[in-house]
User: Fold this.
Amino acid sequence: MSEYNKMPLLMDLSRKDKFGVSLSDIDVPLSELPESSLLREDIQLPELSQLDVVRYFTNLSQMNYSIDTQFYPLGSCTMKYNPKINDQLASLKGFSNIHPLIEESLVQGSLELMFNLQSYLSNISGMTATSLSTMAGAQGELAGVLMIKAFHEKQSTSSKRNVILIPDSAHGTNPASASMAGFSVKSIPSDQNGNMDIDVLKENANENLAGIMLTLPSTLGLFDNQIVDICNIVHEAGGLVYGDGANMNAWMGQTKLGDLGFDVIHINLHKTFSTPHGGGGPGSGPVCVNDTLLNYLPGPVVQRNSNVYEFVEMPDTIGHLGAFHGNFGVLVRAYCYIRALGKEGIPEVSKNAVMNANYIMNKLKHAYDIGFDNRSICMHEVVFTARKQKQNGVKGLDIAKRLLDYGYHAPTMYFPLIVDEALMVEPTESESKNTLDKFIDAMLQIADECENNSELLHEAPHNTPVQRLDEALAARQPNLKWSTK
Assistant:
């Protein structure tokens, strides 16, 4: 090994920056440093070659699970493939280098993109207008219920209309958003078919009703075929209908929520319209409204006057929910995705999402029970239950852990809460039949292990760098200490 490769990885104190200053030029007397910051002994840095360091970090990176390497059977914010070209386009200097406070006259191209995207999303959802300013799905929810609140306040009925109804299969953020907006929340149970219990809805459609929050399709992966009646019941009682559009990839191009009776919805651009969502971000949750809530949209909204684009505030706006104009990089990606797909391509996305989920459901329904097995067709995701496997002492958690050994990310577990031992699988529209078949084979092998070698699952995973952890203990008593030992 050369002397160069044996050198410890130390900072070069003599190296000068662009101003001609090096760290060695900065003279700080030791007497001015606090005693606690002084070294008690020499630093023992390891002597490693560059090649060893490169291999170490390269091997670490290969342990990362990524959509570029494997399939996510995850019923969450759809870990689907997103075209790399959209990332490249969003990184163009004309988009990425503009300052959010720059004069509107100097960024007419960017404002035109936002204006067109507003129009596209309004058209796809069947709504009148859209605001792009909300920067996450949960923030879109909050914007929706705040607009409902502002509407009732203007009608002078806010003191009486203080209840939001939410199905028991809803996303967990729905009741949180309603509560943050100052509403009381009441849960509506699901019936034996996985739909909302419409009789219970009618009992609660009274003078206290402010609105209802619905996810369509629901988190059960089901389309409630009573939806038009539900919207009519709420409207007749004087309430408004909010739609959680997180599952839009199941219906875009096939139907429009505005035509079904929804007053406001949010859309997860980071799910349906081409932005990687690993690590919790970045996100974007535009809100689309009908004529009833048009004047309450959060600002700013882009409008066109003659051939000039400008930001405006709506007359009764609920205000700004974030800095500046939303997550612009995500907006660029969504715009590119919609333009690339076009009027013909968008319906194909939802068709493929539903087809893939139903393919998995039908291939596995004999090995795993379905959450609501009296429904022959699911939408974009299928909710299995490990009830059958539980009879052999195997839980949904064991199946999810064992799936890691087969090289797959775990599915969403124990959600929705109304399905015992739930395993939610969302294959997305971008996966091939070959990929789905390999996943199905792994799930069938695991089902066989549940019957014939259940102990194997109790100790899974076996092949991962980290073996099974006690998640409950780790959450309650996290070990945050780091040691070289």
About this structure: The two ends are 27 Å apart (CA to CA). The first helix runs from residue 3 to 6.
